[in-house]
Model the fold of this input.
Amino acid sequence: MGNTFGTIFRLTTWGESHGGALGAVVDGCPAGLALSEADLQPDLDRRRPGQSNIVTQRKESDAVKIVSGVFEGLTLGTPIAMTIANEDMKPGDYREVESKYRPSHADYTYDAKYGRRDWRGGGRSSARETAGRVAAGAIAKKLLRDREHVEVVAWVSKIGRLVADGDVEKVTLADVEKNIVRCPDDAIAAQMIEAVEAARKDGNSLGGIVTCAVRGVPAGWGEPVFDRIEADLAKAMLSLPATKGFEIGSGFGGTDLTGAEHNDAFYMDGDRIRTRTNRSGGVQGGITNGETIYFRVAFKPTATILKEQETVTRDHQATTIKGRGRHDPCVLPRAVPIVEAMAALVLADHSLRHRARRSSP
Amino acid sequence: MGNTFGTIFRLTTWGESHGGALGAVVDGCPAGLALSEADLQPDLDRRRPGQSNIVTQRKESDAVKIVSGVFEGLTLGTPIAMTIANEDMKPGDYREVESKYRPSHADYTYDAKYGRRDWRGGGRSSARETAGRVAAGAIAKKLLRDREHVEVVAWVSKIGRLVADGDVEKVTLADVEKNIVRCPDDAIAAQMIEAVEAARKDGNSLGGIVTCAVRGVPAGWGEPVFDRIEADLAKAMLSLPATKGFEIGSGFGGTDLTGAEHNDAFYMDGDRIRTRTNRSGGVQGGITNGETIYFRVAFKPTATILKEQETVTRDHQATTIKGRGRHDPCVLPRAVPIVEAMAALVLADHSLRHRARRSSP
Amino acid sequence: MGNTFGTIFRLTTWGESHGGALGAVVDGCPAGLALSEADLQPDLDRRRPGQSNIVTQRKESDAVKIVSGVFEGLTLGTPIAMTIANEDMKPGDYREVESKYRPSHADYTYDAKYGRRDWRGGGRSSARETAGRVAAGAIAKKLLRDREHVEVVAWVSKIGRLVADGDVEKVTLADVEKNIVRCPDDAIAAQMIEAVEAARKDGNSLGGIVTCAVRGVPAGWGEPVFDRIEADLAKAMLSLPATKGFEIGSGFGGTDLTGAEHNDAFYMDGDRIRTRTNRSGGVQGGITNGETIYFRVAFKPTATILKEQETVTRDHQATTIKGRGRHDPCVLPRAVPIVEAMAALVLADHSLRHRARRSSP
Amino acid sequence: MGNTFGTIFRLTTWGESHGGALGAVVDGCPAGLALSEADLQPDLDRRRPGQSNIVTQRKESDAVKIVSGVFEGLTLGTPIAMTIANEDMKPGDYREVESKYRPSHADYTYDAKYGRRDWRGGGRSSARETAGRVAAGAIAKKLLRDREHVEVVAWVSKIGRLVADGDVEKVTLADVEKNIVRCPDDAIAAQMIEAVEAARKDGNSLGGIVTCAVRGVPAGWGEPVFDRIEADLAKAMLSLPATKGFEIGSGFGGTDLTGAEHNDAFYMDGDRIRTRTNRSGGVQGGITNGETIYFRVAFKPTATILKEQETVTRDHQATTIKGRGRHDPCVLPRAVPIVEAMAALVLADHSLRHRARRSSP
Done:
C-alpha cells in the first residue's frame, strides 16, 4: 500500500526490473487533454539506459504504450494505464546477489521486510521502477503546460565536488539538453563528464545534486498544514532511489543568515504582488506565492561499484562481493527527467486540489 | 483536506492562534496503551512559549486535556481527542497585519488561496498549530517506547553559524535538556544562547538546524516505492513552519564522496546483521535496516523581526512594516520537541503499517 | 483509522457517550461560507434526545460550539472543529453492562476487537456519536444550499409494519417537521406514534425505514468506478448505527421488473435532458443525471429492550440481562436528520471532487 | 481518482471495453502467498462472456496474465499487476451510440461529467471493467482461504419474480456451479433459465438478487465508526454496475420485527461465544461477531434491450433507439463471481487493517 502517490491526480506504479513489464496508472487526469505516446516518449528517452556512454549500457528501448484512458487523441477522464517492456534482461548477472547482500543496496532490507525478494536486477528496488514515474510525469507536465502555463525544468548542478548552479529563472530544457551530463554550464559539464568516465574506469561511482525550477505557478497552491507544497515535494524527492536530501529556496545555506538578511520584501510589480528576493523558494506558509519554486535534491554515489567489498550472505556468513554487469557510474544525468516528473506530479495534483477548493460563492 | 497526517496512526489538527482553542485527534492508536495527560504535558512544556528568556514571552500554560479515547487510564482504540486553550491572546498586536503583508510570512499566500484569513497572531499559519502535533507525537512516542523499544531524540545542532553536531548514537534527552537552547554541547550552547539574545536585542532573528536520531527500530519498516521511511520523514519535517531542508544519513555532504567511500559494508555482529558505517542513516531502499535513523532539518531565521521592512497592503499599496509584540528570535529551541513529535508520528504509523503486512502464513 | 469520512470535504468524529465530550472536525470546507452555531443547532435539536415523548429521555442540550475555522462569521478554509458536551450521564445505569453483553449491541464485538471498551452508555458504539455527524452535515447542507442550490430532505416512511412513502419530488422540511415522528403523512404518523408508545409501554422496540431525497444536483457528480455516488451513499448509510439496508431508485423492488418496464426514457425538457421516469434514482453509471436522487435506509428495531434476554458474561458464563435506564423505543424519528447529514456529506464531497476534475482547457 | 478501492489491500482497475486492454493492480498483498494465473482464471471463467447460452455471446477468452509482484510462484509483497486482453471487439455495433444516449445506461452521464466518452461498448462504464475486479478478488479470496480460513460463496437467489433463497450456512461453490444460472435450487434454477431465455427471445431483460455468505471470519474485524464491515461491503456492492440495493442480515425485512423478535441472544458454544439467531448478519456495531456474514445485492434488469425506446441525441434532438449486438438478457449468473470478488476484497482489507491494530503490549 505504498505504491500510489497523490491525492486527486494519482499515480500507481508496478513492476520489477526483470519481471514481465513495468507500468503506471494515472487516475484523476482531467478529460479532454490531448495526449499520445509521442508526448511521453521524449522524457522516457531522457531517462533511458544506454542513452550515452556515461550511463549504464543496458539496452532498453523503453517504448511506452498507452493502453487505456485515451480515445481519439484526448484523455477520457478515466485511468490512463501505461506499460513499458523489459527487453534486455540478464538475470545471470545477479546470481551472486541471490545469496549475498550488496552494501548500500536494498537487498537486505527487502528480505527483512518481505521475507523474500526478486533478486534479478534489484527487482522492485531497482531504479528501473522510475520509468513508470517518468511516463506519468510527462502527462502531469503536459497538463501543467497546456492548462496552467507552468513549466518544470531540472538540471545537474553538482557531481562529486564539481558545482555549477544555474539560474533558476532562466535555465531552459534546451540548455539542459546541450550535453550528455545535463548541466547547463558547458565548461563544468565537460569536467563532470570526465569525472564520471574516470569513476567508471576506476569501478567507482559519484553522487551529486539536481536542481529543479517550477515557473509560472500562480499564488495559492498548497494545502496546509500537512500537505504544504514543499512537504509534498520533499516526499516526492525522497521517494526516489538514492536520494539523501532535499532543500527549497535558501535551504540549509539559509540557516547562516539573519532574519533581516533572509526575508523576502514584497513590492508591487504593476498590479502583481512580487518579492524582491526569493529565498522562500516560491512558497510561504506551505502555499505558493507566485515566484519561481526551486529546490535541490541530493543523490548519493551509486551503490554498485566494481570493487571488492565486505558483506554477509542471507545465511549470515561473512563474505565479500564485487559488482559486475551493467551499472551507472553516476545516476545524475538520468535523474534529471525523474526529478522533473515527480515535481510535475506534485504540482499537477495541487493544481486540481486547489481547484476543488474554489467552490463559487 | 490537508490537515490529516498518517495512514493508520493518523493525526488531524485544528485551531487558529487566537481562535477558540487548538486541538488534535489521533485515530488508529492501538487499544490498551497506558495514557494520561501526564504523558503528554512534558513535551508540551518543552514546546511552550515563555519557557525561557530566549523564546517568545507569550504566556500560555498549554495544558493539554484528553477528552476522548482513554478510559480508566488505557487507550480504547477509538479516536483520542485533545484540546489546548489559547489564554494569552493579544489580537491588538496584529491590527496592522490585517491590512499589510509581513515579509516571508504566510499572510499574502493565505489571502491568495482562501480569499481571507484570521490575521490575529497568524491564525492557522502560526507555529502555535504545532502544539497539537506535539501532543499527538507524545502518544506516538509512548507507543514506540512501550511496544517497540524505539527512542526518538532531537537536539539543536546549529544556530546561525554556530555548529555543534552531537553523536547520533549517544545523545540522550537529559543531554538535550541540560540547557535552554537544547544543544548537548554545553560550550557551544552558551554561545548559541548569547547569539540568540544578541539577535533579540537587535530586533533580528536566527535560523539553524535540528538533528534527530531514532534508535531501536528493527529492520523492515517502510513501504516502497512512495511511502519510504525517508520520504515520509521528509514530508513530516517540511510540513513544519519555517523549515527549508531535510537530509538523512550522509545527506548533501555525502555527494562529495565516491561510492567506495560512501557504501556501508555489512558484517555479522553476533547473529545480527549490522553495517560498519551508517551513511545510509538507517534506511536502505526506503526500508529500515536496524541501524539508527538520523536526519537533519533546516529552519530559516524567524520571519518576524523588529525592523522596518518594505512590503505591500492587501489593497496593493507599497508600504513598510515593522514587527512588534512577542516573537521568537530563534525557533530552534522550541522546534526540538516538534521535530521529535513528527518523527514519532511517522515511525508509529510505519510500525503499524508493517504489522499489517505480516499476515501469518 | 476508521473515523474519517470523505475525500476532499472530510469529517473526523471523536467521543464516547459518557466521555469528556463529543466532537467533529470538518476539513476541506471552502473559505468564505457564512457559518455560525445558529446554522448547526436546528439539526442538532432534531437529533437531540428528550425532544419528544417518543424518544429517549436523556437530557442533553446538545449545544454545539464552533471552536476553529470560522472568523468574523465566515469559514476560513481551515479545519472547522466543533464540540458538544455530555451533560446528563448516568454511568450507574450501565454497571451491569460492564460484565454482561447486551444482545445485538456492540459490547461483545468491541471487546473482541479492542480487548476492552468504555461500557458507560455504549461508549463509542453509542448512537450519541452521530451528534458530531449531524453538526458536520449541517455545514455540508449549507454549502450545498448556498453554492449549489441542492436540497436534502429525509423522512420516516415506515415504522414496524406501518408504511407511508412520500413523494420524493415534493416532501419539504416543513412537511416532515409537522409531527414528532417525522412522517409527512399525518394519518399514518398518528398511528406510528401510537405504535411507538405501545412498544415503549411493552418494553419493546420497533424498526423502520427513512426515505431521503436530494434535489437540484446537476448532471455529472460521481467518480466511477468505485466512488460512484450510490456507492458512497450506501457506505454513508451503512456506517450509521442500526442500519441493515440501503436501496436507491427502484431498489430491491426493481428486480421484479423487466428492462422494458424499468428503463428511464430520455426526452428534452426545453434545453435540458430529462428522463420520463426516475427508476434510476438520479444516478446512471455512478454519476448523477440531474434527476432527484432518492434512496431508502432500513433501521433495525432498537436493540435495547426492557425484557429479560439470554446472554453471556465477559467471563463466558451464561446469564440473562434486562435493559434498564433511558432508551429509544424507536430510533426512526431521530434518524431523519442523521440520514440527511450523511447524504449532505457525500454530496458536498462529490461537488468538490467534481470541481477538481474541471481544469479549464 | 475514484478507481482505487481499499485501504491496505488496495485495488486499482483500468481499461475500457474496446480499448487496448483491461487491467488491475493489487497493492498491499502480503508477501509469500502462493499465486499463479491458475488461481485467478477459474473466477475469470465464471465471469466470462460466452460461457453459456443465457449470457452475452461476445467471445472473450479473458485469459489473465500476472505481469508483476510474483516471483518463483510466491507473491513478493510488491504490486501485483494483471492484464486481460480485449479480443472480440465490434465497435461498429456501437456507432449509433456515439450520437444517441441509451436509456438507463451511462452514456449521457459520462458526457455530462467528462465532456466526452469512449462510446465503443460503453467504454469505461461497461461491466467489462469488472474483469479486473474478479482477478483481484481471486487473490483476496486466496489470502482469506490460505491465511484466515475464510470462505466466500455467492449465488443467484432471485431472477425476475422467481425466488430461491439458499441456506447461508451451507451453500457451497459446487452447489452454485451445478447449473448455468448459479442458483443452488435446481428446480427454481430450471425456471430461471427458462425465464432468461424467454426474455432474450423477447428482446427484453431481467434483474434479480445475488446472496453472498462469508464464513469463518473471526470476531473483531471492522473499523468503526465509518469503516464498518457492512459500510464497506455496501460501498463495494453499490460500486458494481446495475446494482440498486444492499441489505445485510435481516435487512429491509427486519424492519417488520420488534426488538424482542429481532435481537440475537448470546450463548456459550463450548468456549466460544455464539448467537442463537443471526439476524445481525455476522456484524454488530460494525465489527464481526464470528457468525456468518450474509447479505443480498439487488441488480436491476439489464438496460440494453432490443426494443425501440424514446431517447435524445448528444445534440439534444428527440429520437428513438433500439439495442443491437450482443448483450446479457440477465446479468445475474455472471454477477455471482463479481459479488464474491468485491466481498473478498473488503474482507481481505479488513483482515490486514485489524492486524495493524494489534500491536503487542
Notes: Residues 4-357 of chain A form a domain with the Chorismate synthase, AroC fold fold (CATH 3.60.150.10). DSSP finds nine helices and 18 strands in chain A. The CA atoms of residues 311 and 320 of chain A lie 5 Å apart.
